[in-house]
Specification:
alpha+beta; 3 strands; single chain
Length: 71
């Protein structure tokens, strides 16, 4: 996940925590300038689009997502 997110958000501060130690329940926090002037929904859509394959394949079962702009 980190590799995918870093390739899509190369200058972001990214934190990924495996919540259940099962490699498919994660808490993901991303702070990036690309989120500036975007609503939370738009920010989350960008992240979900980056992780689309993982979400559809059930490789990523549950995700707690926190995004913020880095102004």
């Amino acid at each position: 996940l980190e590799e995918i997110l870093r390739s899509n958000f190369p200058n972001a501060k990214i934190q990924i925590i495996d919540l259940a130690n099962d490699e498919n329940h994660y808490s993901i926090t991303i702070k990036d300038k690309s989120f500036n002037d975007l609503s939370k929904i738009a920010q989350h859509r960008l992240v979900n689009a980056a992780l689309k394959k993982e979400l559809l394949s059930e490789e990523l079962h549950a995700m707690q997502l926190k995004t913020t702009a880095d102004k």
